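To close the section, here is one more complete example, presented without commentary so you can practise reading it yourself. The ligand is zinc ion.
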Amino acid sequence: MKSIKNQGSACCPNQCEPFEIDYWSLISADQDPDLKSAALGGELNLVQCPECGAFFHHDGDLIYFDAPAELLVFVFSQKDREKEPELLKRMQEDYKIIKNTLLKQLHMDYPPVSVFGLEALKNLLQEEELISFESEAVAASAAAQGFGVVRLKPSYAREHHFPYYVPAPAGVNEANSYAVVASKVLRAGLKSKLLRNFVDYMSQEGAQLPLTL
Ligand SMILES: [Zn+2]
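Output:
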């Protein structure tokens, strides 16, 4: 899916005359990594008022979608915050439509999330970056100790606060075997809250196997 630009009217915070702009209304992060970087850096939909020269963010609705990361974010305008209940209802309806049309071939099986404003999107993406870094450290530590590495289904990992990668037990297919190898990696000196959380969860009696890709 391609990223989409819309036209709209931007309102300068200094009460200048509104002016026409092109702004991004749909970001396809894996297709357009530059737009992902812009969102992370706070430069997405940053515009300059032609009258007074002020820079500001155009506060329009936006959908941010990262298919490989299984991340679908509805970014609502800051000024609509008090309308949250109806926006969430509309989001669920829009999600159903998007899921069954635009993204049908992706078989989406994870729910969307919502935030208000580009600053909140930036914070969410920065948090994602930290989780990705920590997950890569887990994968590197596991590999360094001679373990295989499996990738968890991203939306499942995010929901449970697990790393995106975990060490793979050899042959055995029980949740507890995952806990055992992950404990070994932690004991070897890796500091990872996400992996610790994974161990705690997989050690529980009756724990289900993790969802892997
Ligand atoms: Zn202005």
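Once you have examined the tokens, check your reading against these statements. The first strand starts at residue 4 and ends at 10. The radius of gyration is 21 Å.
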